[in-house]
């Protein structure tokens, strides 16, 4: 993917604007103080930029380069079994004059996934069912850019105002015949305001999001007379055509509107923020000559809370979130009509819709999370912590006429702890997670198709019905460096984790990061 140099320069400048708690104003921003600011902040965990100044933030930032490698035996077919990536990440909180605070983030991630098949798109699971792919496994290269720029005002009486822009670009390219290339553009604009009365604050944000993903064409280097390309419509239903990649084009365009209503109570020792919102998305799918296999609709309802309680030695943090998502796809039956102009002899191609299957495919998702973390903290930062959390996920996929269904439930329990040593120069973080699956069902109207056997049945037997545990360890060392009277903290982090599944499959991941807090 070609990236304009001016665009990249502007992105890096925007990413150099961000902030933290007032007690940290006079000290060097290090690992401990950065963790304290993240743990104590309420509004920076939302998309409401108007609330940034309610977190008593001061200037802070981080920039790092990270390389990672992951090998997977325990995975779904459409995910691939190995991933190598190189990432550059930076964010900054920054005062912008007397009346504005800003936040900026820039994230560039590039990598390669190996032995992936049956999906040439970015959103494979529990989403738009009209995807495509080949049963031949291959490697995929990706490049992703994520940019966030947010600005919030100080108080004008009881009012504060803010604006946030989230912008993403992505490229996913297959390196083996049939060679597809998926290009993605995703941006979201979120204006917001807050109104404060005493210690209480009401906030409102609304957003418009546009997501576009396009496969402009598919090429091949060699000619294989038996190679099929598949288009899916939901569950095991996939149509494979020999040479179907010739002239294939697919475009997904989603328009989403949503809002969030927030209420916060903030005091020096106890603070809480509750947020509730609704999103609605409408996605059109287009092919050659504006062919439309269907239309996808999605509704999302969410409520979340973060509560902090501060004592002289401890910072208690409780976070909870509940989200329900329902999506459905209308499937079209269309016929190509060709009209010839009698004067010029030119042909006009157009697809005419002959039949609509309303809500033929349906997705229902329920996600619930609850976590508690006890932090040993002073005015200068966090010295150590221990935390527990739980995640419940429920997935329902349904296809009608003929009827097929998939049900998947699991709970994921986590325990995490960390501590700083040698005046917090050296940090050790450890985590353990246990995933338990229950009440899973798979019913396919036709379990004999290649897509049913190689994807749905294989994933159900080897992934969805298998319990697993995961353990991780991260080691961080930081060193202050003073340049022209300004002290920054350089750090190096080594991170790794190991997953073991009940079917004796395992995953391993390792990463190395070098960065700077400033």
Which secondary structure elements does this structure contain, and how are they paired or packed?
Layout: H1 5-15, H2 31-40, E1 60-72, E2 82-96, E3 100-116, E4 132-133, E5 138-153, E6 159-174, E7 179-197, E8 200-215, E9 218-219, E10 228-234, E11 237-242, E12 250-266, E13 270-286, E14 294-310, E15 314-340, E16 347-378, E17 381-399, E18 404-421, E19 426-443, H3 450-464, E20 468-483, E21 486-501, E22 506-517
Antiparallel strand pairs: 1-2, 1-22, 2-3, 3-5, 4-10, 5-6, 6-7, 7-8, 7-9, 8-12, 10-11, 12-13, 13-14, 14-15, 15-16, 16-17, 17-18, 18-19, 19-20, 20-21, 21-22
Protein name: TonB-dependent receptor
InterPro entries: DUF6850
Domain DUF6850: 49-518
Please, could you describe this protein's structure?
The chain is globular and about 80 Å long. It has an 18-stranded antiparallel beta barrel. 7% of the residues lie in helices and 65% in strands. It has one domain (31-517): Porin (Beta Barrel), CATH 2.40.160. With 518 residues, it is mainly beta. The protein is built from 3 helices and 22 strands. This is TonB-dependent receptor. Keywords: Receptor, Signal. Residues 1-26 form the signal peptide. InterPro entries: DUF6850 (IPR049236). Residues 49-518 form the DUF6850 domain.
């Amino acid at each position: 993917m070609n990236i304009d140099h001016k665009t990249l320069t502007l992105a890096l400048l925007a990413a150099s604007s961000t902030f933290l708690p007032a007690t940290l104003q006079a000290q060097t921003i290090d690992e401990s103080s950065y963790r304290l600011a993240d743990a104590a902040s309420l509004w920076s965990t939302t998309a409401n930029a108007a609330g940034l100044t309610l977190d008593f933030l001061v200037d802070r930032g981080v920039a790092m380069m990270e390389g990672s490698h992951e090998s997977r035996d325990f995975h779904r077919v459409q995910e691939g079994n190995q991933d190598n990536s190189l990432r550059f990440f930076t964010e900054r909180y920054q005062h912008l004059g007397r009346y504005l605070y800003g936040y900026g983030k820039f994230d560039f991630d590039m990598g390669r996934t190996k032995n992936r098949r049956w999906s040439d798109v970015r959103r494979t699971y529990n989403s738009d069912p009209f995807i495509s792919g080949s049963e031949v496994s291959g490697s995929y290269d990706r490049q992703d850019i994520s940019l966030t720029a947010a600005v919030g005002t100080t108080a004008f009486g009881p009012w504060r105002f803010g604006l946030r822009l989230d912008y993403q670009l992505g490229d996913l390219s297959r390196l083996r015949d049939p060679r597809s290339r998926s290009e993605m553009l995703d941006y979201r604009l979120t204006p917001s305001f807050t109104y404060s009365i005493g210690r209480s604050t009401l906030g409102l944000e609304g957003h418009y999001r546009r997501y576009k993903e396009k496969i402009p064409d598919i090429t091949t280097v060699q000619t294989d007379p038996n190679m099929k390309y598949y288009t899916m419509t939901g569950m095991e239903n996939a149509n494979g055509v020999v040479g179907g990649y010739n002239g294939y084009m697919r475009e997904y365009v989603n328009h989403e509107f949503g809002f969030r209503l927030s209420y916060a109570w903030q005091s020096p020792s106890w603070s809480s923020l509750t947020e509730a919102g609704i999103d609605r998305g409408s996605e059109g799918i287009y092919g050659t000559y504006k062919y439309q296999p269907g239309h996808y609709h999605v509704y999302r309802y969410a409520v979340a809370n973060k509560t902090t309680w501060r004592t002289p030695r401890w910072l208690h943090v409780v976070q909870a979130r509940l989200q329900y998502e329902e999506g459905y796809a209308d499937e079209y039956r269309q016929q190509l009509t060709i009209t010839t102009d009698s004067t010029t002899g030119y042909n006009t191609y157009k697809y005419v819709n002959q039949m609509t299957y309303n809500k033929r495919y349906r997705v229902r998702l329920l996600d619930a999370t609850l976590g508690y973390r006890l932090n040993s903290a002073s005015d200068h930062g966090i010295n150590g912590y221990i935390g527990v959390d739980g995640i419940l996920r429920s997935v329902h996929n349904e296809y009608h006429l003929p009827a097929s269904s998939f049900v998947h439930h699991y709970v994921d329990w986590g325990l995490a702890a960390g501590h700083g040593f040698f005046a917090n120069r050296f940090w050790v973080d450890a985590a353990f997670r246990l995933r338990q699956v229950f009440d899973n069902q798979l019913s396919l109207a036709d379990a004999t198709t290649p897509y049913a056997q190689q994807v749905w049945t294989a994933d159900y037997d080897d992934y969805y019905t298998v319990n697993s545990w995961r353990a991780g360890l991260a080691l961080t060392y930081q060193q202050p460096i003073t340049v022209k009277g300004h002290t920054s903290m350089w750090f190096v982090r080594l991170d790794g984790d190991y997953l073991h599944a009940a079917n004796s499959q395992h995953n391993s991941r390792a990463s190395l990061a070098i960065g700077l807090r400033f």
